[in-house]
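Before the break, one more example. Copy the sequence into your notebook; we will annotate it together after we see the structure.
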Amino acid sequence: MAKSSAAPATASSAPPAPALPATYEAALRELEELVSSLESGQLPLDQLLAGYQRGAQLLAFCKSRLEVVENQVRVLEGNELKPWA
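Here is what the structure looks like once it is written out:
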């Protein structure tokens, strides 16, 4: 019988992580929903771990988007952040 041309199995059988949301707001909504489900205490351990990992990805995405916006504001404000009035 011929071997299939499928990719070889890797040590990790976890499915690939879902793509990051397109916007900060979408990521924040997903993160809020994820936190609610994690806090419910109703998820099995493997889903808790997957949720924690996804939350870490979303948090990193949100932080990076905020840094980009902060840098843009610095440029607009002459390299000095000013307090909101």
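The longest helix spans residues 45-76. The domain at 24-76 is CATH 1.10.287.1040 (Helix Hairpins). Try to locate both features in your own notes.
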